[in-house]
UniProtKB/TrEMBL annotation:
Pfam families: Connexin (PF00029)
A GO-annotated cellular component: connexin complex
UniProt organism field: Circaetus pectoralis (black-chested snake-eagle)
PANTHER family named in the record: CONNEXIN, GAP JUNCTION EPSILON-1 PROTEIN-RELATED
Protein name: CXE1 protein
Domain Connexin cysteine-rich, chain residue ranges per copy: 103-172
Principal subcellular localisation of the protein: membrane
An annotated GO BP: cell-cell signaling
Transmembrane segment boundaries: 5-23, 53-75, 87-110, 149-170
Recorded superkingdom: Eukaryota
Organism placement in taxonomy: Eukaryota, Metazoa, Chordata, Craniata, Vertebrata
Molecular functions (GO terms): gap junction channel activity
Length: 183
């Protein structure tokens, strides 16, 4: 359930809110001097990958392990009750959840490296490669506060997803050990 729910919430955030916040970012990104080639060059330096593309890749990547398990279960006609009865199914499922945790952690780390925790108002761009008179130029980042809030929301979703995955493994382990009654 949590995979479907958080996958849907991620898609909603990406599709609706992500487009609203990041949709035309490259068009509104402006540098001094305000020339098209400088703006594009600096924007590509500022955003080597757009957040929407990164989060879409993250979503697909972290949903794949669970999708493999559910595809396997559907092909073998495994009922929900059988998942906790046979050790192979449990191991396969727990492995898929562990893989998801690892992929979420890697995505979290990459997101920090690419975007940080805060979007600043001004981005200092090195335009030395364009053979300009000045090597550093200032660029204005549009709607920086909204983007910071969106980053924090995406970090929060990642943390919640990891916590739910750990809780799922804990729940399965407790059921297998007999601490939680399934009746």
């Amino acid at each position: 359930f949590h995979t479907l729910f958080f996958g849907s919430v991620h898609m909603f955030f990406l599709g609706v809110l992500g487009f609203a916040v990041y949709g035309n970012e490259a068009l509104h990104f402006s540098c001094d001097p305000d020339k098209r080639e400088v703006n594009f060059f600096c924007y590509n330096q500022f955003r080597p990958i757009t957040p929407q593309v990164f989060w879409a890749l993250q979503l697909v990547t972290v949903l794949v392990p669970g999708a493999f398990f559910h595809l396997y279960a559907a092909c073998k006609s495994i009922k929900q009750e059988d998942n906790l009865q046979k050790s192979f199914y449990i191991c396969f499922y727990i492995l898929s959840v562990f893989l998801r945790i690892i992929l979420e952690a890697v995505a979290f780390w990459l997101q920090i490296q690419l975007f940080g925790f805060r979007v600043n108002t001004i981005y200092m761009c090195d335009v030395g490669a364009l053979e300009k008179k000045f090597n550093i130029t200032q660029c204005m980042v549009p709607e920086h506060f909204e983007k910071t809030i969106f980053l924090i929301a995406m970090y929060t979703f990642t943390v919640i997803t990891v916590v739910l995955c750990v809780a799922k493994i804990f729940e399965i382990s407790c059921r297998r050990l007999g601490f939680l009654n399934t009746r």
